[in-house]
Each structure stands twice: as C-alpha cells, then as structure tokens.
Amino acid sequence: MKPIRKVDLRKVPKSEDDVWAGWVFRMILLTLKYNVHKISWKTHLKDSRTKKGLEGTVDMAGNIELDLRNRNNPEAVSILIHEIAHRAMRFMPEEMILLFEAIAWETLTDAQKNYLRRFLPRKIPKKTKKPRK
Ligand SMILES: [Zn+2]
Predict the structure, then answer these.
(1) Which residues of the chain have pLDDT under 70?
(2) CA of 36 relative to ligand 1 center, distance in Å
(3) Is the separation of the CB atoms in 79 and 55 below 8 Å?
(4) What is the 56 CA–ligand 1 centroid distance (Å)?
(5) Domains, the chain, ranges and CATH?
(6) pTM here?
(7) How far is the CA of 106 from the centre of ligand 1 (A)?
(8) Cα(41) to centroid of ligand 1, in Å?
(9) From the CA of 2, how far away is ligand 1's center (Å)?
C-alpha cells in the first residue's frame, strides 16, 4: 500500500525518557504512515449489522471513519488512536484495543497528542438531504 501522508519520524515530538512511551508513539506513527489509507469524518456513523451508533471504524483497506459529532471533542484523538490500534493489531479483541487506547492516552505527551490531532481531517462531509419517504 502506498502511504498517503507524510510522517517524518525525525520531526515528531519526543517521548519522555522512557522506552515504552517511545514504543507506543512510534507504533501509532508507523501504522499511520504505512498502514492507514484514509481518515474521514462521517455523519451518523453506525454499525452496518447492529445499527448501533459508533465513534469510529476501520475497514480491511485501512480506511478510518470517525463520527462527526466528535470533531470538536478533545478526545477525538483518542478515538483515532483506538482505530489505528485495530489496524495495527487486527487479531486483538475489543477489550485489548480499549486497554491499549487507555495506556496510549496516559503515556503520550500533550505535544504528541497535538501532533496526532493534525491527522484528523479538515474536510467535513456535506449535509445530505433527508431521504423522502
Ligand atoms: Zn474498537
């Protein structure tokens, strides 16, 4: 897969002097760089089977979709990390991914979280007309 966005690993915010913190951030960046195809906002994101509302999804092609409601939520980055973790660790069950997300959120510095915030898309979906009944 061709990486679609530039992540210059030499120019990213440093972790505090901790091997594990560095590993967590680097794992997120490498997945973004090489294994995520596209990130976009979606209105009313929901599970196609259960119809339950979702905050984020990632498909087999590496397309991440995030629910537009969280666009101004500071924790949108945490949701992005969650979806990146699914992409990086495809065989891990949901509870393991939730745990990774929590660990990452505690481990990353504010500068690193802000760096990841840049990958949240600027473009928002156009309003769609309600289907007529
Ligand atoms: Zn999940």
Answers:
(1) 1-5, 128-133
(2) 16
(3) yes
(4) 8
(5) 18-117 (3.30.2010)
(6) 0.87
(7) 18
(8) 16
(9) 25
CA distance 45 to 41: 9
For the beta carbon of residue 90, count every other beta carbon within 10 angstroms.
11
Q: Give distance in angstroms: CA of 133 to centre of ligand 1.
A: 33
CA of 58 to the centre of ligand 1 (A): 9
CA of 83 to the centre of ligand 1 (A): 6
Determine the Cα angle at 51 with ends 101 and 73, to 5°.
40
Q: What is the pLDDT of residue 4?
A: 53
